[in-house]
Amino acid sequence: MYLTKGKYPAGLNQTWRERATHPRQTRRVLAEDPEWSLAVVPSLANLCLQNIVKHFQEKPILDELLPDHRAYVLEKLSTSLPLSVTANLVSDEAYWKRCCESRWGLCDVSEYGSSWKRMLFERHLENIIELFIPDVTDPESVLEVVPQCQNYVRRLKISQLLPPIREPPKFEEDDSSEFASDVGHEGPSVDHFDFGILLDKLSNLEELQLVYGVNGCGMNFEWNLFEFTFRDCDSLAKALKSCRSLKVLRIHRSKVDDEKCRVLVRSLLDHPSLLELDLSHNLVGDRGARAIGKLLNRSRLERLVVCDNQIRGPGAQALGHALSKNPPLVSLNLRLNRLGDEGGQAMAQALVSNQTLMNLHLGANEMTEPTATALAHALVQNSTLRNLNLACNRLGVDGGKVLEEGMSHNGSLLECDVRLTNISLENQNCISQRLCTNRIRAQCRQTPRASATPQ
């Protein structure tokens, strides 16, 4: 049905009459900005603050503002502003939290001393170093961020270090295929980022963790992607010597052998602040262990981790000799080496005179009954050791009996791991009971006695 002119339904005519009597209800305009309102006109102060936010990169103004105005500007600032502008000007943690979450999503700030600003600068510098390609990346790209982050970086955890890009070999047209297959090609030396240009400028750096390798190389795997060269070692050693604030050094999975270990240790002798050295999952052998033994007596080292290396009996003897002189070392981890009974007995002999070591890990070191016997005699005289790990050794039933006898005369050991050592269940239970008794006594000694107050 079509509507003719002047003839409309009654309800529609009534609606139009209502709109005619109330002209303000004829139209509604919805603003695109939900905060816009005709009744509210921005104040001059708000207009000035909005202009400050808009042109903050060209002319940063913050400290001169009143507290409420400063909070408004910080809330509106873009997280994509250059760090050269915001690094030394903005200290508000809420702003740096927004920056971190915009770059990495959900973040755990507890690992960074609960400081979002520190987190951003540490991860930013780590990312630059991990993507640095020698002979390709300009070293200035690293140096230009140092003035911005040097006051905030306390730890660097470098999960990969890239080598130079190798060019494919080039052969002459008249070379035969058989000859070409036997000829090597000369490319750039397999070096990595030179920490000598950086570490001496990070005056607050306390922890450095390095892996000389590549993450996720996939089908492009080559051994030279995981090679810690002598040139790398020499440059890193010089950089470590200049970094006087360093407290923790970790170099993992980087093929650190005896020679490289000796070069690194030589630079760490008499270091004023180093407290922890971790060379796990490398190729350190007896010569490297001898160098580390010298380091124990010429440093403030409290924790040493050399698990999963190639240290045998002679290397353990060198470490034991150093321990007998009571260095400040508190924790020693020798798990997954090849000490054997020669090395195990050397460690036990060191415990007789040592009065500083509290944690000793000797797991998976091919030790048998003679080591258990030597440790049993040492535990009778040692009153300092708190944790001893002997798991995954072949101590045997007789070794378990001797170890239990030694434990019965020890009142200081609180933990002793004897899993997978082939000792009897009865001996394990007796050792556990003795450890429980020691823990109860230690807790009683630490609990202050309630002093009677006069009424």
Quick tags:
41% helix, disordered N terminus, 17 helices, nine-stranded parallel β-sheet, alpha/beta, 455 residues, elongated
Describe the fold and architecture:
- By secondary structure, the protein is an alpha/beta fold.
- It contains 17 helices and 9 strands.
- The chain has a domain at 41-102.
- The protein has helices at residues 10-21, 44-54, 67-76, 83-86, 93-104, 116-130, 140-143, 146-149, 177-182, 230-242, 258-268, 286-296, 313-323, 340-353, 369-381, 396-407, 425-446, and strands at 155-158, 207-211, 248-252, 276-278, 303-305, 331-333, 359-361, 387-389, 415-417.
- It has a 9-stranded parallel β-sheet with strand order 1-2-3-4-5-6-7-8-9.
- Helix 10 (230-242) runs parallel beside helix 11.
Low-pLDDT sequence parts:
1-5, 176-188, 450-455
Q: Order of helices and strands, N to C?
A: HHHHHHHHEHEHEHEHEHEHEHEHEH
Rg calculated over all Cα atoms: 34 Å
Tell me the structural class: alpha/beta
Helix content: 40-55%
- The count of strands amounts to 9
Main sheet: strand order: 1-2-3-4-5-6-7-8-9
Overview in brief:
41% of the residues lie in helices and 7% in strands. It is of the alpha/beta class.
Strand and helix layout:
Blueprint: H1 10-21, H2 44-54, H3 67-76, H4 83-86, H5 93-104, H6 116-130, H7 140-143, H8 146-149, E1 155-158, H9 177-182, E2 207-211, H10 230-242, E3 248-252, H11 258-268, E4 276-278, H12 286-296, E5 303-305, H13 313-323, E6 331-333, H14 340-353, E7 359-361, H15 369-381, E8 387-389, H16 396-407, E9 415-417, H17 425-446
Parallel strand pairs: 1-2, 2-3, 3-4, 4-5, 5-6, 6-7, 7-8, 8-9
Helix pairs in contact: 2-3, 5-6, 10-11, 11-12, 12-13, 13-14, 14-15, 15-16, 16-17
